[in-house]
Amino acid sequence: MTASENSLSRAPAALREEPGGGLAVAVWATLKRDLLLMLRRRSEVLNPLVFFALVITLFPIGISPDPALLAAIAPGLLWVAALLAALLSLDSLFRADYDDGSLEQLLLTPQPLALLALAKVAVHWLLTGLPLALMAPVLGIMLSLPAGSYAVLAISLALGSASLSLIGAIGAALTVGLSRGGVLLSLLVLPLYIPVLIFGAGAVQAAILGDGVLAHLAILGALLALALSLAPLAIAASLRISING
Amino acid sequence: MWAFINKLRSPKWFYAISAKLQPWFWAAALILIVTGTIWGLAFAPADYQQGNSFRIIYVHVPAAFLAQSIFVSMAVTGLVFMVWKIKIADMAATVMAPLGAAMTFIALFSGAVWGVPTWGTWWMWDARLTSMLILLFLYLGVIALRGAFASRDSASRAASVLAMVGVINIPIIKYSVEWWYTLHQPATFTVTGRVGMPMEMWLPLLIMVLGFYSFFIALVLTRTRSEILRRESNKRWVRELAEEAN
Hints:
By secondary structure, chain A is mainly alpha-helical. Chain A is built from 11 helices and no strands. Chain B has a domain at 57-185 and 198-231.
């Protein structure tokens, strides 16, 4: 038995079904498994959304219910609150898999870990970033966000939160082996979130002022392209460190 | 080249060679910083707009230069450690992180002090102060991550990955923050391009920058030597060294 066959036989059942199936099968199996797991734990999907709504509720109470004032700061508030909600959900990204050992199985598969990790991040974005983006316009109404910027808010959040998930997954992978990684994770990841926040909130602001928003969205897209190409490698390297440590 | 890299693998060799190098860097640092300080504070002409308060750049600018260079060196040593498993590189990265954070803090603090007579306030959310603040958070993240691991090897590799991720992000953060807001004056110091200040002001600044870099190299050499002794304390050559000293 060769080394690769040996490691293949230790892979989870879903990945072993077609020994010759290769990468596409493995990525699809990881996607399906993670989606299924997340949909069975619905509260984990709903919690970031409730958190988002709660934080947005705090601002009018803490600052002022004056619609004019709220409208002026709404783009930034919505973006920051969504960013924090996405951040809070990151800690659980690899946690359960780390605890029950399936992360180790993932490392043992012959497929590149970077792409399997990318599949996990894609599920995270699909069930956290995308719902947050869809929910943001509703909260925008409550903050009297000026008309005409709602679509841009949702699009910028959908684009930006994909970068947030990718960058955040690096931090989650680095801290998954630590028993109290939660606060540390935010410390590592928040500084790296700043460019996304600048251009995301900038897009909404530009839409309110009637400037062109395409430039902002294009830069958000460029950041996503960069994160998409480099972050999986860093996530894979970090997961290896956390497992071996 | 390979022979040199192989030599670098040996902490003992590095310990010997750094013993010869470090007095030169300490001497250079001392001479340059003392000269630059006296020249900059006493002899350089006062600025026609800012008066004497401009003299804080003789600390502010070298510290800001080092703050950025140290992060890049940390990422480079991290990469060397990850690729070639050279332990010295990681020891150097370990001692660099607090030094870089300290330099970032000095740059921020001196900027704030300079802001009082110039802007009339301690803090302004301007582009360069903001990206310096973010750099400080990046440093604190690397230090905190290294401290969080129980095993030294995992800590080293995790800190290396984070330093490399950070160094890719620093230019992105810098330009996005600059785009976000610019209130600061344009850069005062360039080595190439046009010199924005008269020679009598610029020369002491150059001396201070060189002095700060010598200080950085000297301090990293000295502290890496202590780190070698700490980590290799169970090796025979370290024990023999300790017995000789007694």
